[in-house]
Amino acid sequence: MADAYTPPAVWTWEKESGGKFANINRPISGATHDHELPRGSHPFQLHSMGTPNGQKVSILFEELLAAGYPAEYDAWLIDITKGPQFSSGFVEINPNSKIPALMDLSGEKPIRVFESGAILLHLAEKFGAFIPTDPAERAECLSWLMWQMGSGPLLGGGFGHFYAYAPEKIEYAIDRFTMEAKRLLDVADKRLGEVPYFAGQQYTIADIAVYGWFGMIARREAYGTAYEFLEFASYENVVRWSDEMLARTAVKRGIKVNRMGDGLVRERHSAADIDAVM
Q1: Tell me, what's the pLDDT at 226?
Q2: Which residues contact 228 (CB under 8 A, 6 or more apart)?
Q3: Tell me, what's the pLDDT at 2?
Q4: For residue 257, which of 37, 41, 105, 46 has the smallest C-alpha distance?
Q5: Boundaries of CATH 3.40.30.10 in the chain?
Q6: How many Cα atoms sit within 13 Å of 233 on the Cβ side?
């Protein structure tokens, strides 16, 4: 057993924390370098990466386009492992230096929107789509959206980090966050045993938000052997819902945007960019 750690009276940043993302972790905010972000010809400029949080927004854009809404967008890759989220251009959109970040240029005045939940809500309200109009159903939709936003860090920064990315395996941390990850899956499984979608009978931004995280595990694309470790298959209602989500063409398209693989950077500036890798 490693020596017990005794926290100092005042914490100071003296070395990198270790782990996969140590080179981009720091205790201060703000830009580290000057760099203007690119801008395309479409009314929406998305600066993101195909992580669980990033996929939420690209899925919604693809759903909007599939439904006939004028939601054409340029998707620019922000490779968070290399630090472009700390550029002056990105910080102007999101002072928190996290993806996704959106510039809405569709109106008379540019609007910046950051945090994935805020972007989903902004777009859903703008187009009047994928969000219920009935007050009770809307409240249910927003409740599950906020549930996901609140629980996402426990699944990603908690379970995912200590299970897959931390420089050493810490039993207490893995047990603590595995317990919480399985509790969240149980909450979702019970809800989806009552209704087909999180908000009820209607597919909404709540489903898109949750799928960003659960979908990565369902497709075995997150945290190594997490699918088996969490016994994901035992949550039968979540599995049913996950399969139905992935059967949607817009979801298939959305999860490919701003992904890197096979030597390709899958930025999206036209439908053909994603069609080429479907």
Answers
A1: 97
A2: none
A3: 58
A4: 46
A5: 44-129
A6: 5
- Whether the link from the prior residue into 167 is cis, omega within 30° of 0, is no
- DSSP reduced 3-state for 131: coil
In angstroms, the CA 77 to CA 267 distance is 6
The structure tokens 């395996």 sit at: 169
- Asked whether the beta carbons of 93 and 119 are under 8 A apart, the reply is no
How far apart CA 57 and CA 50 sit, in angstroms, is: 10
pLDDT of residue 48: 97
What are the average pLDDT values for consecutive 10-residue runs of the chain, which has 278 residues? 82 81 84 95 97 96 98 96 94 97 97 98 98 97 97 93 94 97 98 98 98 97 96 98 98 92 74 80
Q: What pLDDT score was predicted for residue 242? A: 98
Contact predicate 208/59, CB 8 Å:
yes
Fold adopted by 135-247: Glutathione S-transferase Yfyf (Class Pi); Chain A, domain 2 (1.20.1050)
CATH of 44-129, picked from 3.40.50.2300, 3.40.50.970, 3.50.50.60, 3.40.30.10, is: 3.40.30.10
Q: What are the φ and ψ backbone dihedral angles of 131, each rounded to 5 degrees?
A: -145, 130
pTM over 0.85: yes
Beta bridge partners of 45: 74, 103
